[in-house]
Design a protein that fits this description.
Blueprint lengths: L3 H4 L15 E6 L8 E5 L2 E7 L5 E5 L13 E3 L2 E3 L6 E2 L5 E3 L17 E4 L2 E5 L23 E9 L3 H9 L4 H4 L15 E5 L4 E10 L3 H7 L5 E11 L2 E10 L6 E12 L5 E9 L6 H31 L14 H23 L1
Antiparallel strand pairs: 1-10, 2-3, 3-4, 5-6, 6-7, 7-8, 9-10, 11-17, 12-13, 13-14, 14-15, 15-16, 16-17
Length: about 350
């Protein structure tokens, strides 16, 4: 085993600048309403609301006059009104009115962020506001297909988002951290793993034989078992990691169950993360009890990941023994490759900043 993290500076860590030139999940669709809300994303305090026509808006949550937080204000039509001196700002950030001047100076404006409302979420572009890169917005196959029933969740994580990327590329922890949910067996930690690295995305694939499968879901899908599971993972942006799980009924040719399990990580700061997830189910859409069980199972398992990553970050910050470095083993390869890719993204952004 080697200590790749301590020996190489081409692996992203919590000291790597947060990556800006990507689309991040800002909120669930129903979180953004006519009542203004604030959220910190990549260290920036941002205000969200909807126009009267229902379009989501994101602007800086700081009045350019005296820095009063705009979430303490109110809406006048589609304008956000600062409750300190009554200045009004349009959805594009331009000033609509300064009451004491009875005019709208062009020099007074807010930063306004490009948004996209797709699938169950609202996404925000954190790079150059005038030039959002739509080629870096990745649509999910299940977003607009009625075949899929989608469950979602959110949790606030007191840890750097990169640990979550590593965690999701590592299926060997399932048999231990998630043991009470029977997601994997000890022997599955020995399953061979295929990793494809194409520079701007990492694919990982492995098969677990003889897996457990929720009995209620198996009954709904008409599956009897025994079961094998194919696990596909795709990492191509710091904002999300896509999982595609195919459970095969070995006793019945062609009988399968598919699930998309997608994780969305939006850094609040270098040490805190907005963690959203979505579970798209092929079967079970007509059974509210089954859907409730799946929501509980997914949420509980992801909560275990959250707690583990928070504990790891806490001890990393607290225990400063000289000469200690984490040891990386072969089954960490997927996560390490993802961190290398993100380090490359960060270097590219740094070069673009210097060039500008």
């Amino acid at each position: 085993m080697t200590s790749l993290k301590s020996q190489s500076n081409d692996i992203a860590d919590k000291h790597t600048p947060l990556l800006r030139n990507f689309w991040y999940v800002a909120a669930k669709r129903d979180e953004i309403t006519r009542a203004p809300i604030r959220r910190t994303i990549l260290n920036e305090d941002i205000l969200f609301y909807r126009t009267e026509e229902g379009k989501p808006v994101a602007v800086q949550n700081r009045c350019p006059h005296r820095s009063f937080p705009l979430h303490n204000g109110y809406l006048n039509g589609d304008r956000i009104v600062c409750n300190y001196h009554g200045m009004e700002f349009n959805p594009d950030g331009s000033c609509g009115l300064v009451p004491s001047l009875n005019s709208a100076p062009r020099s007074i404006r807010l930063d306004a962020y490009p948004l996209q409302e797709e699938g169950p979420f609202v996404w925000i572009w954190m790079g150059d506001q005038a030039n959002p890169d739509y080629t870096r917005f990745f649509r999910e196959d299940w977003w607009d297909k009625p075949r899929w029933t989608v469950l979602t969740g959110y949790m606030f994580m007191k840890a750097n988002y990169l640990g979550l990327h590593e965690n999701l590329m590592d299926l060997t922890h399932f048999a231990f951290l998630h043991s009470k949910w029977n997601l994997a067996k000890r022997e599955h930690t020995l399953a061979p793993c295929t990793i494809t690295d194409e520079g701007n995305h990492i694919r990982q694939f492995e098969v677990h034989e003889g897996v457990d499968f929720p009995p209620a879901l198996a009954e709904y899908a008409g599956m009897k078992g025994p079961f094998n599971r194919e696990a596909h993972h795709l990492a191509r942006t710091p904002a999300m990691q896509e999982g595609h799980q195919i459970t095969v009924d070995v006793s019945q040719a062609g009988k399968t169950d598919e699930q998309y399990i997608t994780h969305y990580m939006t850094p609040e700061t270098a040490t805190t993360t907005h963690y959203y997830w979505a579970l798209a189910l092929e079967h079970g859409g007509g059974d509210s009890v089954l859907l409730g069980q799946m929501q509980t199972l997914a949420g509980a398992a992801f909560e275990e990941d959250k707690v583990a990553l928070e504990e790891i970050e806490a001890i990393q910050n607290r225990d400063h023994r000289p000469g200690f470095s984490e040891r990386i083993i072969k089954t960490d390869e997927g996560g390490v490759r993802v961190l290398r890719m993100f380090a490359k993204f960060a270097a590219d952004e740094a070069r673009q900043t210097i060039a500008a």
